[in-house]
Design goal:
This protein has about 160 residues and is an alpha+beta fold. It is about 50% helix and about 20% strand. It is globular.
Length: about 160
């Protein structure tokens, strides 16, 4: 009877450890705050569409950084990777007024990358994650608006 009870306790503890480990791994993937969507169009077209939609919405476009070119200039091979920086100062600066450290995440940075198989992805930092990172709890409507806008911008590359 004691052996059966001991075996049951050990089995239960082992199962609990496995479940905890599985949950921890799943949570760790979500802790980075990264949002990633697959583009239905090639890299150059994705960049063109996104920049056009940013302009159409009247959002300020700050810069385009071709990271693959920078790497090539340094004799480093890097698959296509372009960082687009844009924002709406009346909206974005509200996050910085809530916490000056939020300037690390504003203006918006949207990375377009191409996998070895040719798939293109748009990648950015989740705005709710940014709010938690900087402890901003009084700008919920503004973070929601930023999410709506970036989702709208990236929707331009999800259909052929």
């Amino acid at each position: 009877m004691i052996n059966r009870l001991t075996n049951l306790v050990v089995a239960t503890l082992f199962a609990a450890i496995l479940i905890t480990a599985a949950v921890s791994v799943a949570r760790a993937d979500g802790l980075d705050g990264i949002v990633r969507i697959r583009s239905a169009v090639p890299m150059a077209e994705a960049i063109t569409r996104i920049k056009a939609d940013i302009a159409k919405k009247g959002i300020r476009f700050f810069m385009e950084i071709d990271q693959a070119k920078l790497a090539a200039d340094a004799d480093v091979k890097l698959r296509p990777s372009t960082l687009l920086v844009f924002g709406n100062p009346p909206l974005g600066t509200q996050f910085i007024t809530a916490n000056p450290n939020a300037g690390l995440d504003w203006p918006v940075r949207l990375l377009l990358t191409q996998e070895d198989n040719g798939d293109v992805y748009a990648v950015w930092t989740d705005f709710d994650w940014i709010a938690r990172r900087h402890g901003i709890t009084n700008r919920e409507a503004q973070f929601k608006m930023a999410t709506i806008v970036v989702n709208s911008i990236t929707s331009t590359i999800t259909a052929k």
